[in-house]
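Two proteins were folded this term; both appear here.
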Amino acid sequence: MDADVIIIGSGMGGATLAASLAPTGRRILILERGERLQPSAQDRDPNAIFGEGTFRPNETWLDGTDKPFNPGNYYYVGGNSKIYGAVLIRYRAEDFEPIEHFGGSTPGWPISYADLETDYQAAEDLYAVRGTITEDPTEPPHSGGYAHQPVPDEPDITELRHRLKRAGLTPCSLPLGVDIDEWLDGGQTTWDAFPNTGEGKMDAETGGLKAALRHDNVKLKTGCRVASLKTDTDGKISAVICETTNGTETLRAPIVVLAAGAVQSAALLLASANEGNPNGLANSSDQVGRNFMNHNCSAVLAMHPLRKNRSVYQKTLMVNDFYLKDGNKPPLGNIQMLGKITGSILAASSKLPKPLANLIAARSFDFYAMSEDLPNPESRVTLKDGLIKLDWQRSNWEAHERLVKELKRKLKAAGFPIVLSQPFDRRTPSHQCGTARMGDDPTSSVVDSFCRSHDHENLFIVDASVLPTSAAVNPALTIAALALRAGRHMTETEFVS
């Protein structure tokens, strides 16, 4: 055997699980198709990031109409978290229960918020989250507080807080995995959508993976793209086939963990079909690849022609006034700040003339409106001619339109006469999840509540693919909490000697 546990993927799920298992002393091998991001002149260059797509993969997927596109997923040590906005927020307690939405209803989870609370607390500690539990009325119960104070508002965001309160909203601090002084030492930019090559942002590499690799029993193998999984006659995963620069390698371990992300994990399971599993591995339920969800999101820019926004990073506030049910009204979603949009970012991403982009960005307060996408078995990942086909069937759009309308109304009441909005298109990955859903019933789900495959007892899946619902907040902390829960379960059931 090459290890006691093989983990495929070093993103938030894989890295956190490795950190959980490392103290057991078991040999853990993490496989990552990418390499470590190295510091470069492009790290803080908006044109390189947003205009030239320097950090995007050289990869093509198909959409639902078989039209090719370049996905905005990233293959580095740390996965997509290397580029993320470092928002580490808990799902609200109500998100684990069935909820009626404008576009339908969510099914609820096989576990409750209370079942995951201690893991949320542990994940917040592992990722050194900055936050407070006193500001947001939708905040669920915490067994402990945050170890660090919130990332401070900049002066113009402090003024924005006051304006939003006067307009009747409840602005509160975003829980963030950011050491702001360390981040700004690397350049005067926001961290949102910027690659992390230092220690300022707590991502899967600087958080979970760094903790795991302190143990000599944990190894990381980069440049290793897993092509398929093999099974034995008992239905267990018997081998991991990966492609490297040295050719094809076969690796074996008693436990295999898949943590490649909602799209790639589903694609790998489907690509591993064999005689005993003609529809793909872990897929006796025919649910692998189905129920793909991607948040409904829009950028909303609020401006006053006579006021400038001098903020550098901006992303410290959120508003959840429209998140949960209000009387008989279904929930609409979460509002948070985007990382500060500059003229260079706006020009690179929108093709506006630079002078106009500078004029707009200097005066804009930039918001991110996010609404829940509901699970739909026809929204799915499949394979076609060797390519990934992602047919996202967007849902609950009425709720999102209402959220953007409410936000615009409140921003105008807060003193911004000009409010513009732009929805994110289908090519933008906005918290992809759901393709290997968790559940108690093996006929309608892929893994159990501890992320173990119903079909293969030595296979676990610990990434966003297991989320039964997308909620309307960033999923990174929930992925980490589920990985810690799975790690505790594995330690108690698989490593008993």
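Next, the second protein.
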Amino acid sequence: MLDDFRTVNDDLPSIDENYSAHLVDAAWEGDPLMDAVVEMFNRLPSGQGRKMFLQAIDHGIDSLDNPPQELRDLFAQLDHIPEWLDWDKVNDGVMMLDKASYLGIMLGVTLGSLATAGSHSISNAVGMTGRFQKNIVNRSLESVAFYAQTGCKDGLRRYGPGFKAAVNVRLMHAMVRAKMIKSTEGDLFDYATYGNPMNQVDTAFGIPFFGLQIGLCERVFGHPVSERDLEGLRMQWTYIGYLMGVRNDIVPRSADQNFYLLDMCWATLGEPSRFTYDLYEALFLGFEEAFTRYHRDRVWKRLAGRFAFDLLHAYSRYMLGNTLCDDMRAVRKVYYLRWLPTVHASLNKLVHALRFKGQKPYKGKFTPDGGALMTLVKALLRPSSEEGAITYAHHDNLTR
């Protein structure tokens, strides 16, 4: 993925040592502001804290009469515009996602999801909740909604759908962290070895995992991706990270820091947790099983679905390599398609080399309700009304 942008070798690239040191330190810190809000939720009658929290998101902290100090502190950070934020660059990131191919988006998100499942500390947190294993349809739609809401035009502005989604997911992370800290199962919470669950660095990893990697996947398959596009993705996802509680001193402020963070992500996943292989299976085979369940009576749809998932497996294996995919046990070898990604990448590079590389007009691929990607996923999985409800509130009672 990095060949066109950086010299790639077996060593972690050098970076300002202060940034590296801050990253290491941040692994032992959770999210003090949102962790305090979770404690406040548990102190108040059930539902009261959530009600005030939602009102503050929708109408501002000043709309509440005498709000708890925990909410005042949280929204003082959220309402503050950091000095490094450049809205023009955020818009460049949104435009990059809008012109990106669905293949690039799906591969970028898939690689980020696989790294999530492969990370010992993150997979412990994700697996502990059981949502991927028990309700992959709703969990997947929630992820699509989050991506669309943070990726639509002006979505990250205050009171925008992306701003609200990022803060809601931040609360979910804090709920999971509080549950894990209370756990008596040693392999769920090992502070000395893995730091805080859902810690600052785990959250910061989302910046290159789900931002930068989409631009890199696009580049692999021949689509024109400039340094400006990557800088836009960095700015967009750095602000998402800020809204989700990442410390100001570890959000990547430059392309070099963003690449370094991506390298560190992949280099420090650690050994598989007890949930890792279940999550791999859910991510790759769970979708396919859900699709088959809804279309078992339509032979042509089953065959079409099988081909679509064969494509996902073939392209994922091309991006990740056989060794890692064999270790994961969930990405199958698709022999009749193994030539396709290589040919696709070569032809696409040739076509784009001959084509005028003008900026495409904004089409609005992502919208607050999910846009075309949400329509596609719903058509594949056909969720029930309960499965299709996006509330970001599934973990509210984890710590009660």
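DSSP finds 20 helices and no strands in the chain. The CA atoms of residues 129 and 175 lie 10 Å apart. These notes refer to the second protein only.
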